[in-house]
Amino acid sequence: MGSNRFHRVILKGLLAAFLASAALPSFALAQANTRAVTRPLEPDTQPMKKDRVETQPAEGNAQGAAEEQTQPDGIVPSGGVELYQRMGAALPPAPPEKPYNGPIDEAYGAYQRGFYVTALDKALTRAGAGDAAAQTLVAEMMTKGLGIKRDAKTAAFWYRQAAEGGDPAAMFQYALLLMSGRDVPRDKKLADEFMRKAAEAGNSSAQFNWAQIVVSDNPGEKGLHLALPFYEKSASQGVADAQYAVAQLYVALKDLPQEKKAKAREWLERAAKAGFDTAQLDMGVWLVNGIGGERDYDKGFEWMRIAAHRGNVAAQNKLSHLYINALGTRPNPVEAAKWYVLSRRAGLQDPALEDFYLGISEETRKQAIEAANRFRRG
């Protein structure tokens, strides 16, 4: 049955592999979702990282050799999903709503109730008079074709008017248009200016994106220190990617106060509970290795399992190691081989797991391939 080979991947090698994955990631500029309407609530955009991959559908086959026939042609990064679609764990309690005693905005009220024609009619009148909030609403509705035919170029005009009028949501959206050159001439300098202004005005998505820009423009620890306050502000407003970044920086930056470093795992857990699969992966890594707190193999296994089920290939690979070494779970060669098969199909090579896989019996490999195919079909 290959039992000796099953235990060949020892704990020392596992922890070394886990530690290697715990290094500070390179942060890529995240383009938040295009929702701009912010009244009366702030936007809940949650950009995704690129660790998530999707592969071609598996071809059912009961023969052991069929595993090689189901290799995908390549790895395709997913387009990401909204927060409510990626809940892998219980969400943290929602923050209490802030009391609102200001004037009632009839245009936004109609928009939120789905009365788009009414909302557009009321907003256009105010937009023409220079109301920045109404201009943002008009741009949003034209972008999505709500109550009017979709018109991206005219929407860009209204975003610009609202941005120049000081609306934070419009400044953020217009900055994104300027970055991409979509429907407006590309202008990085002006885009950065509007992104910074939106971030300073409190827009949570702009705060995260401006932090990314600062890191990109200022390589090394200097840039990370300059960006950290914006990551922290965005994280405090619930942006999961910012919470993840704060956790990583609290661990990586050496000269931060100890009270901040002590909260690194707390921020990472908040991002993980929001359904961010990369944070779920790192929660598993941190708990297994004792990063940011005590070791907890059981909880580490659970977070790794959640991330693996969400499609995170690195988590699938590491979950295989946990099953082999019985860390947080009982040893299970079928499950170990199943998760290895899934991660290998996605292009992640692992010589130690390949050695384990070749050492198990043909019947175990067959069961693992069938389990992997069921998972992909599901």
UniProtKB/TrEMBL annotation:
Record bears the keyword Repressor: no
Keywords: Signal
Top-rank taxon: Bacteria
Recorded coiled-coil stretches: none
Record-linked Pfam families: Sel1 (PF08238)
Region: Disordered, residue numbers: 38-74
Biased composition (Low complexity): 56-71
Name the record gives this protein: Enhanced entry protein
Organism encoding this protein: Xaviernesmea oryzae
Taxonomic path: Bacteria, Pseudomonadati, Pseudomonadota, Alphaproteobacteria, Hyphomicrobiales
